[in-house]
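Technical note accompanying the year-one report. For the benefit of new consortium partners, we illustrate the data format agreed upon in the data management plan: each record pairs a sequence with a structure-token string. No post-processing was applied to the example shown here.
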Amino acid sequence: MKRIRRRVNKQTAIDFAVYLLVRTLFAVIQTLSVQRMQPVCNGLAYLVSDVLQLRRRIIDTNLRIASPNASDQQINETRRQMWAHLVMMACEIAWSRRRLHLSNWRQMLDFPTSGIFLRPFLEGRPMVLVSGHYGNFEIGGYATGLFGIPTMTVARPLDNRFLHRYITQFRGMHGQMLVDKEGSADIIQQHLESNGTLSLVADQFAGARGCWVNFFGKPTSCHKALALFTLANDAPMAVFYSRRTTGPMQFEIGCNGVADPREAGPELGGVTELTCWYNERLEKAIALSPEQYWWMHRRWRDVPEKIQRRMDRMAAKQAA
């Protein structure tokens, strides 16, 4: 028992030290200008990508799936730009609390598809916002709350409870509520029944029992629940993204389409059809700025033989 207690105390001390380091780095970043951080981000990206080669094999494999005709030079450049984007993303999260407000959001955010995106909200209906690990999705969630649209986000808690509490506070500043993905079904259902908005990251591998569809031309597994939330609750699904445009702290908040159960389009024929639909639209969003996607995730894994045969039959049927 004493050994277990010492181990727990040691891990708590490590977690708190990491939390203090992150808070210190954020405090330093908040004092610096965009111009000073840009070369720092580029330098760190080169270090991680070319010197340490962190997750290089996975990143390069994923990039070749998405861009089979890309040259080695293009793959290397995209990988380097992806790491620079991730470092800058952390900086933007640190800056947003002090620099992005209702009084100045027009200087940093462009919302070209606001009419498509806002209609279901104005109708007072539940809604499912689907995004991916693309652009600065944390700014996207921050911005929707800033506009008076509170959302519920489903995510696994961080192992470091101090960092988890800090990030939860950041997300909750303007009404974004975070719930644990384990055992949250009843909470989500009540939220949708009260015409709430659900915000979900849709590009996470769902295992062998998920819904298998093509993503950039190769099968991957998606969680069935995303489509079911829309189909079972008369809740329009919007593919939502927040990508950096002309530079740091400059974003396009975009909507790549809305699937409305009341319009009964072909994408609403079932779970597979709707899952295909939102993955296709995520692809189109990522194609706008591929260097802003998280290519280090293992999005594609081995396809079970039974699933592969079924998908081959479906492809042959569509081609006939």
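Partners are asked to follow this layout when depositing records. The beta strands are 109-110, 127-131, 151-155, 177-180, 197-201, 211-215, 218-222, 237-244, 251-259.
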